[in-house]
Design brief:
The complex is a heterodimer. By secondary structure, chain A is an all-alpha fold. Chain B has 4 helices and no strands. Classes of the chains: A mainly alpha, B mainly alpha. Chains A and B meet through helix 3, helix 4, helix 5, helix 6 and helix 7 of A and helix 1, helix 2, helix 3 and helix 4 of B.
Chain lengths: 234, 100
C-alpha cells in the first residue's frame, strides 16, 4: 500500500474505466435487482416506491432484509438496527479508503462515498495497492452498480408478473468468486495479510450462528485489522 | 400493506443509515493521524471485510457454491485475473449438477 498518497484525483477517464471494469459484475446484479423489484411489489410497495427505495438506499442486503419489516405498524427501531448491521461494513470501507478519499475536495469526496459499495470497493483495492491515485474507478464502478440496481429494480417492479429464479443466474456464486479472487490477490501482493485473513474467515464463520447477520462481518473485519496492526508492531 | 407515511419514514431511516455509514468512515478518519500501525490496521480491515463476506456466505452455501468459489481462487492463483476467476467459478457452478 502506498503511504501518504499524493495527487489523489477523480478523473473522468477513471470514472469511465471504473464503469467498464464493473460491467461484467453488473450483468449479474440485474436478476437480483429484478428479484428485489418483484419481492417489494408483492410485499405491498408500489412499483415507483420500490424503485425509489433502490435509488435512495442502494444496499441490496439491507433492502431485502427491510422487506420483512415493511408492514404497518412498522417496527422502525428494529428496522434501523438491521439496516445498521447490514450497511455497517460501508463505514469500515470508508475508513480504509480515507487516506485517499480525504485528499479530494469535499464535494468530490461526498459524491464518491455516496456510491461506495462492496464490488467497487473490492475492485478499487486492487488498483490502489498497485499505487494508483485516481479514485475515478471507485466512483465509476459505484455509478454503474447504482444505475444497474435502480434500473433492474424498476424492471422487476413494473414488469411484475414475469417469473425469475435468481439462483439460476448464479448471482451469489459470481459475486462470491469475485470477492474471493480479489481477497486472494490482495493477500498475494501483501503476504503479511495471510494471518489477518484467516482470523477474519474464522471469526465470521464461527460467530455467524450467534451474531445477527452483518455483525459477524463487522467483528471479523475489526479483529482482522487488529491482528494486522499487531503483526506490524512485533 | 404499507401506508404512504410509513413508507416515507421507513425509506428515510434506511437511506439515512446507508448514507451515514458510507460517509462516516472517511469522515471519522480525518481526525486520526495515520501512523504505520493504523495503516496496517486499515489494510488488514479492508481485506478482512471482503474475506469475511465470503466466509460468512460459504458457511450456509451449498457444496456447488463452495466448489465454485474454491475453483475461482485456484484460477485466480494461476491466471492473476479476477475476471478469469469469475468465469471459472461460473463454469464450475453450471457444470456441477451435470457432473455430480
Amino acid at each position: 500500500m502506498v503511504r501518504n498518497p499524493q495527487n489523489v484525483t477523480l478523473s473522468a477517464a477513471g470514472v469511465a474505466r471504473g464503469m467498464t471494469r464493473l460491467l461484467p459484475i453488473c450483468l449479474f446484479v440485474v436478476p437480483f435487482g429484478i428479484a428485489f423489484g418483484i419481492a417489494a411489489t408483492e410485499g405491498g410497495i408500489g412499483p415507483l416506491q420500490a424503485t425509489a427505495m433502490s435509488g435512495l438506499v442502494f444496499t441490496a442486503t439491507a433492502q431485502f432484509a427491510a422487506l420483512d419489516f415493511l408492514n404497518d405498524p412498522v417496527a422502525f427501531f428494529s428496522l434501523g438496527l438491521v439496516a445498521l448491521a447490514l450497511s455497517g461494513r460501508h463505514l469500515i470501507m470508508g475508513a480504509a479508503l480515507a487516506q485517499w478519499i480525504n485528499r479530494l475536495p469535499p464535494g468530490k469526496r461526498f459524491l464518491t462515498l455516496m456510491f461506495l459499495s462492496d464490488a467497487n470497493f473490492a475492485d478499487t483495492q486492487t488498483l490502489l495497492q498497485r499505487g494508483d491515485t485516481d479514485l475515478g474507478p471507485l466512483l465509476g464502478g459505484g455509478l454503474m452498480l447504482w444505475i444497474t440496481w435502480v434500473a433492474s429494480t424498476g424492471i422487476g417492479a413494473f414488469g411484475g408478473d414475469l417469473l425469475i429464479n435468481t439462483e439460476a443466474f448464479g448471482f451469489g456464486v459470481v459475486m462470491l468468486c469475485f470477492f474471493a479472487a480479489t481477497a486472494f490477490g490482495m493477500v498475494r501482493s501483501t503476504p503479511s495479510l495471510v494471518l489477518p485473513v484467516f482470523v477474519a474467515i474464522g471469526v465470521s464463520a464461527a460467530t455467524l450462528p450467534y451474531l445477527p447477520n452483518g455483525w459477524n462481518i463487522i467483528l471479523a473485519a475489526l479483529l482482522g485489522g487488529g491482528v494486522a496492526a499487531q503483526c506490524h508492531a512485533e | 400493506m404499507l401506508s404512504d407515511g410509513s413508507y416515507i419514514i421507513a425509506v428515510s431511516v434506511l437511506a439515512l443509515i446507508a448514507l451515514g455509514t458510507r460517509l462516516s468512515g472517511a469522515f471519522l478518519m480525518a481526525w486520526v493521524t495515520p501512523t504505520p500501525r493504523i495503516e496496517k490496521f486499515l489494510q488488514g480491515m479492508s481485506v478482512s471485510v471482503i474475506a469475511a463476506l465470503v466466509a460468512s456466505a460459504l458457511v450456509t452455501a451449498d457444496l456447488k457454491t463452495f466448489v465454485a468459489t474454491c475453483s475461482a481462487i485456484f484460477i485466480a492463483a494461476l491466471s492473476r485475473s479476477v475476471i478469469w476467476a469469475m468465469i471459472a467459478g461460473m463454469i464450475v457452478a453450471a457444470a456441477y449438477p451435470q457432473v455430480f
